[in-house]
Design a protein that fits this description.
Helices cover about 35% and strands about 25% of the residues. The chain is an alpha+beta fold. The strands form three sheets. The chain has a five-stranded antiparallel β-sheet. A four-stranded antiparallel β-sheet has the order 9-10-8-11. It has a two-stranded antiparallel ribbon with strand order 1-2. The longest helix has 18 residues, at about 300-315. The protein is elongated. The protein starts with a helix and ends in a 12-residue tail after the last helix.
């Protein structure tokens, strides 16, 4: 709708200052000619907006002009009060700021929408942390945030999974990403994209050098590359299993992150077939938790890995017992 577009233009100009007409057109998915017509409409309605053509031109509000925009729709006002990943605000030290911002938004909302927005904040909650994810180490994001917002390089001591000793890296940060309750630092190291879990950073120190990001590359671009690398990891292991139907609910909860397919049968068979994906072969030992309620069908090396894990457990419990504890028998 034209009214929504005019409001969007006003908000963008108020936030950004001078904006080229072609950029506004791209953001709002209309032609440049339509943008100029909208600018004329804003001007006719009393908004002090003007356009300068040419290479360094753009569209801009008169210096010092501000407006309290209260033209939110009912759905937009509800959306503002659905707080996704609330833990993210606490980790960034922004809980108090978030509460203050929402109080200001509530005061600016059209009166008819305030009750709906308030009810939404009490009725809808989004928790991005997975079930059974285990206790997470407290993460200090202060230095990482400083590097991201001040555009400075970072010196990290970082412990990789499966390694006891941390390694040292000098990196060029793009930003921070919270995925399923876990924080990641997205950065370049020697011009190549890298992903660092924040809870594995043993120390971080801000350097005096300015960040050296690749020209024209943004956080979202680097994250997409790294995300695909993780999801399409070549050394992943695809495992096919069959599971007793009565344990399917528990299986879907415990193996949700690895589950890629589930057989669509008639619901009468005692067994259900599923496919899972693991980053490394040893990770299939997760399936030992299901004992004889689950059987790995393929690949053979996954069956061998589970057998080795079962033998290790058997050897542990058949070994020597602590002094004073009698062996069952």
């Amino acid at each position: 709708m034209k009214s929504d577009r005019l409001l969007s233009i006003l908000l963008l100009l108020q936030t950004r200052g001078r904006v080229p007409a072609h950029e506004l057109a791209g953001r709002l998915e209309v032609s440049v000619r339509t943008i100029y017509r909208d600018v004329e409409a804003l001007s006719a309605s009393g908004v002090p907006v003007y356009a300068e053509r040419g290479r360094h031109g753009g569209i801009e509000l008169l210096a010092g002009f501000r407006t309290d925009v209260t033209g939110l729709t009912a759905d937009e006002s509800r959306a503002l009060f659905i707080l996704a990943a609330q833990g993210a605000h606490a980790a960034l030290g922004l809980d108090a700021a978030l509460g203050s911002a929402l109080r200001k938004v509530m005061a600016a909302l059209p009166a008819p929408y305030r009750p709906a927005a308030e009810v939404t904040s009490r009725r809808i909650l989004v928790d991005a942390t997975r079930w059974r994810s285990g206790p997470q180490q407290a993460v200090d994001l202060e230095v990482l945030q400083d590097a991201v917002f001040s555009d400075r390089r970072l010196r990290l001591r970082y412990r990789h999974s499966g390694e006891r000793q941390p390694r040292a890296y000098t990196v060029d940060p793009y930003g921070l990403v919270a995925k399923a309750g876990v924080w990641y630092l997205v950065a370049d190291r020697r011009g190549a994209p890298r992903l660092f879990r924040a809870d594995r950073v043993r120390s971080a120190r801000l350097l005096g050098d300015p960040v050296r990001r690749r020209k024209g590359v943004e956080l979202a671009d680097v994250w997409e590359v790294l995300r695909r690398q993780v999801e399409d990891r070549e050394n992943g292991v695809e495992v096919t299993v069959r599971l007793r139907r009565e344990h399917l609910d528990m299986f879907q909860r415990m193996a949700a992150a690895q589950l890629t397919a589930l057989s669509g049968d008639d619901g009468e068979s005692e067994w259900v077939t599923a496919r899972l994906s693991y980053p490394v072969l040893r990770a299939v030992r997760q399936l030992l938790a299901f004992s004889d309620r689950l059987e790995v069908l393929d690949p053979p090396e996954a069956r061998a890995e589970l057998l080795a894990g079962a033998r290790s457990v058997t050897a542990l419990y058949q070994g020597a017992h602590p002094e004073g504890v009698a062996s069952p028998g």
